[in-house]
Amino acid sequence: MSKEKVLIVDDEVELAATLSERLQLRGYGAVAAYSAEEGMNAVRALSPDVVILDLNLPGEGGIGILKKIKRSSPSIQVILTTGHGEIQSEEEGLSAGAFSYITKPFDISELMEQIDKAVAADE
Amino acid sequence: MSYRILVFKGLSALKVRDKLFLAFGLYLLVVISTSLVVYYTIISSLADPVALEKVRIIFLVTIFFLLAAGYVLGTIISRTITVPLKKLERTIKNISMGDLTDKTGIEGHDEIGSLGNSFDQMLERLRDTYNFLEVAVQMLQEKQDLLVENEKLASLGRLAAGVAHEINNPLAIINEKSGLMKDFIEFAPDFPNKEKFLELTQGISDSVSRCRAITHHLLGYARPIEIVKEFFSMENAVNEVLVFLKSEIVSKKIVVETRFDKDSDKIKSDKVQIEQVLLNIIKDAVDAVAISGSLSIWSDRKNDETARIFIKDNGHGISRDMLKHIFEPFFSTKERGKGTGLGLFVSYGIVKKLGGKILVESELNKGTTFTIELPFGYLEGEP
Hints:
heterodimer; A: 123 residues; alpha/beta; five-stranded parallel β-sheet; 5 helices; 49% helix; B: 383 residues; alpha+beta; five-stranded mixed β-sheet; two-stranded antiparallel ribbon; 64% helix
């Protein structure tokens, strides 16, 4: 099986960078992007299998990016990351086509499980 | 004309009683002087001593009767005017001092009596209004206290949730950094102190988990919970919670007594949320009692709209000072590390969202009783 391409979009540089490194260690082709714009560019350039997207992204917000991704490439699965307590956005995200959401701070094994499920759902 | 003005001015300065005295004095003066004039006129024209004696007696008797009539007249005027006026004055003075319990007590069917009656009626109305206002003010005070309490907890909740939200991001970073360190250590070949390093990073992860539990708890308070209202058996809900706490109850040999009325099944509420509240409160009760302590849980109806669930323990109780703060976040009477101080805070928020309230009574070394008030469901028109 080829390496799943995972794009992490989060304005918390430290979090996104560290997380991508941890996923790389676990065999994923992980890349981090630190803004909405960077994230969209990466989506177009890399066409990842799964995007891990921060719901509270400054600017357009996670939901805005999610909708864009789903419009341009519906096959990309998006997992939203939230700070908890944003049930409305969470539901909005799910109805906008997100695969699932996961609350911060998250457990790496839980995240991997979600990624694998998302990839499996796509195939 | 000026003398008339002067006389009226002088009269208006006098009290009623003085005016009556003055009038009576004038009356006496007129009676006596007229009598004397008539008397001497007659005497001077009479020569017969017998007739003279008769005239003298007639005059004395006449004067006596006139004086007596004056006295009776004075008494009648005093009785009908001065005395009632005095009563009225005394009552008004008492009212102005704040005593509304007095009344004039003026009786009779004349104008004065009618005045007194009307005054007493007015006073009674005033008293009723005053009593009504007193009750209303007290109710408002209680409502305001409750509002202040609610507002305080709500703003504390917002603050706590805001802090938790901000903390969550750095917490996620700490989590990933320590996770990455652990990854490197795990994937690296054996090196000195490898186990020790693994233990250390695990310690960081565990602490993050603890923080996460707190922030999620706090955020749960601010989070608009999805309320799923349904009819359920309160008895079953309590029993499920008791089963959950079974090991602690058994190991402390706590005697648990439960009694539910049939109305407790008519509560339409969110079972999952209520179980969370029951768990928080019953767990506190279990922690509060000594070995072989007792715990009673029962229900009743407060009125047609409200059901009550009581949770009573005979534990160490809570002092008055502490009781005031019991629903505040991070307030705990337990030893450091034994509780987060969020259980009752969260419970308060849940019950409020479900349209009820939590009350607490406690006495040191006697025990504590929590009362959860919840609305019955059938009144909402959707049985």
